[in-house]
Amino acid sequence: MANIQSLKKTLKGNTMILILLAVMLFFQLLIVGADKGSLFAPENITNLINQNAWVVILATGMLLCILTGGNIDLSVGSVICLVGAVAGILIVNMGWPVLPSIIICLIVGAAIGAWHGFFIAYVHIPPFICTLSGMLLWRGVALILLNGMTISPFPDSFLNIFGSYLPELFLEQPNDDMANEAYDALIEHNEKITFLVTMIISVICCFLTVVAAVVSRASKIRKGYSVSTNIGFIAKQAILCAVIMIVGTLLAQDKGLPLILVIVGIIVGIYSYYTQNTVPGRYLYAIGGNEKAARLSGINTDNVMMFAYTNMGFIAGIAGLVCAARLNSAAPTVGQSYEMDAIASCFIGGASAYGGTGTVGGAVIGAIFMGVLNNGMSILGVDSNWQRAVKGMVLLLAVIFDVVSKKKKSSK
User: Fold this and answer.
1) Three-class secondary structure assignment of the chain
2) Contact at 8 Å (CB) between 321 and 105?
3) Could you tell me the CA-to-CA distances from 193 to 101, 189, 253, 392 in Å, in that order?
4) Distance CA 68, CA 61 (A)
5) 406 located within any domain
6) Domain that holds residue 330
7) CA atoms of 73 and 117, how far apart (whole Å)
8) Is position 150 within any domain?
9) What's the pLDDT band for 289 if we cut at 50, 70, 90?
10) pLDDT digits (tens, 9 = 90+) for 346-386
11) Residue 32 counted as domain residue
């Protein structure tokens, strides 16, 4: 009986992962049936990562805002456009070095976030209104800077930071002047090195993931927290490692490990640790659970809100640079409706519409879910209007599930 209850608890805690796998299998069957390739083709997996990296990055920052009480930031799409415009002006038009330009762009993003945070935290303007005004304001500033024009192309030194692959970045690349035999030999050599290095990195990721999980579990046991059974824990780590190795194998068969995936992994790792293992990170949950009680317990709720929105601006700055590199341009239309995908990713990944509940890992799963929806429907040739309708319905269902679950818990 205990094992059955543990199994039910484990399945309930990983519902979104199971749904994600079911959706991926569903699209795979449809795509293969329509003779349009495969969702799991190595090239498509690489494309899926590159296309949706900004969603994962934005969702990570958006989660911190949502945790504080279901608050959101509607301005992030406009901030992405503005940061891209600043990057284009500095790097392309003015010829500035890439690194100082990136630092300035991140400062611009953080400053915009601090602007919102000040009015939200200390003037107590509702986040919806404040960020709605920011959505209009920063889009207008971006259009003024761009003067309605697109700035492109960015230099390779900028594009390589966000668009290159490991170990392709360090390999000798073939050229048309080489003899056919030498050209083919170099291609074969690069493919072998790419496969080997990617698989080694995948194994290292599996090892680090297991070690981190074991350390976290041991810490919870010492503190008297309830943890899953040994069988459930081992099964979860085995499945996670299997997923990492499968993805690594697919990437190894294409261009290798995208550098943007490394950047996303670092961001996700830092914010996962911050929200789950630090006192300031737990303040976010406390405010979302009961802001008045958190204030009475000594938490400076205004400072926490200030941090959440300043951080959101910083994260939007990173996403703006990623999008500029992905598109190889800074355009007036970049970032439109990006905030909706980020918000939807958080709610689909288990964040509560009332705040106080949610994890970075859940937001990542939600972002992957959104990416699979976009990618699968695009491969099948579904009209963009129908794609929006489907994503809207999925978001509504996720929020309905959250609200119903809250009511069931409160009625017990």
Assistant:
1) CHHHHHHHHHHHHCHHHHHHHHHHHHHHHHHHHCCCCCCCCHHHHHHHHHHHHHHHHHHHHHHHHHHCCCCCCCCHHHHHHHHHHHHHHHHHHCCCCHHHHHHHHHHHHHHHHHHHHHHHHCCCCCHHHHHHHHHHHHHHHHHHHHCCCCECCCCHHHHHHHHCEECHHHCCCCCCCCCHHHHHHHHHHHHHHHHHHHHHHHHHHHHHHHHHHHHHHHHHHHCCCCCCCHHHHHHHHHHHHHHHHHHHHHHHCCCCEEHHHHHHHHHHHHHHHHHHHCHHHHHHHHHHHCHHHHHHCCCCHHHHHHHHHHHHHHHHHHHHHHHHHHHCCECCCCCCCHHHHHHHHHHHCCCCCCCCCCCHHHHHHHHHHHHHHHHHHHHCCCCHHHHHHHHHHHHHHHHHHHHHHHHHHHHC
2) yes
3) 33, 6, 11, 43
4) 12
5) no
6) 48-339
7) 10
8) yes
9) confident
10) 988 888 888 888 899 889 988 998 888 888 898 888 888 88
11) no
pLDDT range class, residue 406, cuts 50, 70, 90? low
d(CA 162, CA 260): 5
Q: How many domains does the chain fold into?
A: 1
Report whether pLDDT(86) > 80: yes
Q: Does some domain include residue 12?
A: no
